[in-house]
Amino acid sequence: MSLTTATAPPTDPGPAETRRRRAGRSRLEPPNRWAGLLTVGWLTIVAVPLLVMINWSLQSQDAYLADGPLAPPRAITADNLVTVFDSGFLLFFLNTAVVTVACVGLTLIVAVPAAYAIVRSPSRIVAAGFRGFLLGLAIPAQATIIPIYLLIVRMGLYDTLGAIILPTTAFSLPLAVLVLASALRDVPREQYEAMTLDGASAWRMMFSLAVPMSLGSVITVGVYTALTAWNGFLFPLILTQSVDQRVLTLGLWSFQSEFGVDVPGLMTAVLLSAMPVFLAYLLARRWLIAGLAGVGGK
Amino acid sequence: MSERAPDRTTRPGVWYAVPAMVFFGLFALVPLVAVVVLSFTHWNGLGDPQPAGLENWERLASDPTVLDSLRITVLLGVVCWLVQTPLSLLLGVWAAGPQRNRAVLSAVFFLPLLLSGAAVAIVWRSLLDPNFGLASVLGPLVGIPDGNLLGSSTSALLVIVAVVAWQFVPFHTLLYQAAARRIPRQLYEAARMDGATRLHQFRHITLPQLRNTIITSSLLMVVGSLTYFETILIVTDGGPGRATEVLPFRMYEAGFRSYEMGYGAAIASALVLIGTLLSLVMVRFSGFSKMRSTLEGL
Description:
Chain A has helices spanning 15-28, 33-58, 61-67, 79-86, 89-120, 124-136, 145-154, 161-184, 189-197, 202-213, 215-231, 234-239, 248-258, 263-296. By secondary structure, chain A is mainly alpha-helical. By secondary structure, chain B is an all-alpha fold.
């Protein structure tokens, strides 16, 4: 459907190109003040809740209750960290990490060969499989949750991390296969021909030609899958139950009721839960943006 | 392909794609069929589903809470689209321009996308707390003296619209930004030489060139609006009354709170049906097939 238009991630123009465009534009047209104003307005809307959240996480609960929502912290405190870690945060964090690493690993292990086969194999079965993946882009996970619950219970996986990992991976496959396939299409046929003359197997061609040449997309898929797995809510909510198997998103939700009015503690937990994502964003910004922007296609 | 010499390269076998196909089939395609099958059964979540004939569907057709949910789902989808599309279109087009501070802006824009839906909902719920949150300060300014924005059905719905926009406008902005960067600059240069104003350029170049992206983004929004779940669960829990109970929430309630999985499956089937129909209608009426590049006019 809509997502079938996903293309190879766009690359940023190089610095020279950007400079040339800047100079070109500013000579011809004055800056667009209204649009600039709108952007600053939206920026405020985005930034204020985030700043309030950070502000709250730095103050004690007493100060928060006494000084009102907009007061800056009187004294910066680390008490909230103690509260959060005492509430099992570390366990939820580790569970989420296990789920995320497993989802990324599984997704790449099955999606890379599948995309390679879709691009290279003449088989009709593979082509039909590709259409199946395309169909999958339009399936909302919500609508399938009851049968998935039945399936997971019957497989004896209910209330395990595996119950989260398997469906999360399955639902990340359509986009992964699509992005990888469009990247693999760009590998020139001559390269495959040259390797065939050298007597290389299809498997070797995948590892020493196709994957290295589309490494950017492989990373994009990895980063995007990690983001989805880290932030997943519905599958953990329905498919796990005990505190031992709780992931961060559910942990935050339970903190909300357990902490009562300890909003500073809650905000600290939210910030801590997003920390690895922020770090990953700093490291892999280019691939994350490429992956998300690639969804829109042209 | 046909003009070229026959391809004699070594090609991968079908089995490269098999793991991904099995995975995806088992956890996405089979459940899609199974949800319809389950809608003709009674099942309390334990034991075996029992055949129920058309009972769930008859009940569905006459259940006022489901009809209300349908109405709320559609209303929410329409309002969210109306709010998000112009905002993200304008922001994206502006962000694709040559501004010097663009990098900083897009970095801040990106932050809500990194937070999980659960985290976003929790932050907003705290901000909107009538006693201690921002709402206690800002509520009186917008005519809600007690600051209880979640107290009335209209304002609770608007809150959901605002939270969804806060979370997803950055994503759609990114889509438009990526697409706007690919519009050939010569089009604008030619228009400027003809003396076209900025507004003219926007109407006659930018909008037609972004047509594909507008459709893609709108489809994602519409299909996405059928899946707002954790936002509603955490911010309003469907309330006040049933004012924010969208279809997936109603399904969750039927299946996992009242243990009427068969009935939940019937609601889920309706959800799949509506999603598919909406996508088809949108693709048809927006003239996906007729789309051409405006470059032809040159």
